[in-house]
Design a protein that fits this description.
With 318 residues, the protein is an alpha/beta fold. The chain contains 7 helices and 18 strands. It has 3 domains: 92 residues, Elongation Factor Tu (Ef-tu), domain 3 (Beta Barrel); 111 residues, Rossmann fold, CATH 3.40.50.80; 84 residues, Beta-grasp domain (Ubiquitin-like (UB roll)), CATH 3.10.20.30. Its cofactor is FMN.
Length: 318
């Protein structure tokens, strides 16, 4: 067994709102699990080549379990469907150790947490960590309707006045006015947002219009549309000694794998960072949601599952 892969058992499964599976994973022996911080996720190995990332939503101080909330997505590429069909109580599953690509900034005087739909899951862990540390925060939960919102009883009990809920099908006055919310924040507030792509783009766009610096806007995409349009280009994978032509409609990863090169991919949507490679020559056309704007400007890394090239040729360290 790899050091970073564990076999855990589903010890509890609760279906909320008819479309969200809340799942607790624990060690067969009952031993403590590796610690995690708010914002962390784990890789769930559902099948050969089918690995998906799910945020941990339980209080970070807990070591006896990892809790996930998984929405059954009608447009699922296999991940959420597999979770709902296979991960029943008693089932074993291979799980990666927690990784945190969405950490809280400990210097923030106030934190604004905004979760849309199932994007509430990492926000719950963040809210617990902030509450338990006595730090200032507010948690906004946006959903299509109260009947579509999971975790409500827990959130109301745990976070009281720090929690504000917004439902699309209720009166207009309680819906999220993102411009007003951002404008009412104390100086140097840090914003954290997670949810569907359109929702996140809306919130992040409003922060940009309000001239919030990138350093105070934190986000994590669950999924994203992959755009592989554009002219063909050449990619040389130096370490593998392979050069391929990447045609329109094809990803770099697909072209390399077709040539026999092993490429580590997971989400295949440019959100998890698994496939990031070093760029040695050429100019990437960044289409991922993982690298920061500053990292993209450096042009020395690329997400090969989705990004393309502005130059006719790229040389990567793979």
């Amino acid at each position: 067994m790899q050091d970073d892969i564990m076999t855990l058992r589903v010890v509890r499964r609760d279906i909320q709102t008819n479309e969200i599976a809340v799942i607790d994973l624990a060690a067969e022996s009952g031993a403590d699990l590796p610690a995690f911080e708010a914002g962390a996720h784990i890789d769930i190995h559902l099948d050969e080549g089918l690995v998906r990332q799910y945020s941990l939503s339980n209080p970070p101080g807990e070591r006896h379990r990892y809790r996930l909330g998984v929405l059954l997505d009608p447009a699922s590429r296999g991940g959420s469907k597999a979770v709902h069909e296979r991960l029943h109580e008693g089932v074993q599953v291979k799980v990666g150790v927690p990784r945190n690509l969405f950490p809280l900034d400990g210097s923030a005087p106030h934190s604004l947490l905004v979760g849309g739909g199932i994007g509430i899951t990492p926000m719950i862990a963040m809210a617990y960590e902030l509450r338990d540390a006595g730090r200032s925060f507010e948690l906004h939960y946006c959903c299509r309707g109260r009947d579509k919102a999971a975790f409500i009883d827990e959130l109301e009990s745990a976070f009281g006045d720090a929690l504000v809920m917004h439902f699309d099908d209720e009166e207009a006055a309680q819906r999220l006015d993102i411009k007003a919310l951002l404008g009412a924040q104390p100086a140097d507030t840090h914003l954290y947002v997670c949810g569907p792509t359109g929702f996140m783009d809306w919130v992040i766009g409003a922060a940009g219009q309000a001239e919030w610096p990138h350093s105070r806007v934190h986000s994590e995409y669950f999924s994203a549309e992959v755009d592989t349009s554009g002219a063909a280009f050449e990619v040389e994978a130096v370490a593998s000694g392979v050069t391929v032509q990447v045609e329109e409609g094809m990803s770099i990863a697909q072209a390399l794998r077709a040539a026999g090169v092993k490429v580590n991919v997971s989400c295949e949507e440019g959100v998890c960072g698994t496939c990031i490679c070093e760029v040695l020559e050429g100019t990437p056309d960044h289409r991922d949601h993982f690298l920061s704007e500053e990292e993209k400007e450096d042009n020395d890394q690329i997400a090969v599952c989705c990004s393309r090239a502005k130059s006719a040729r790229l040389v990567i360290d793979l």
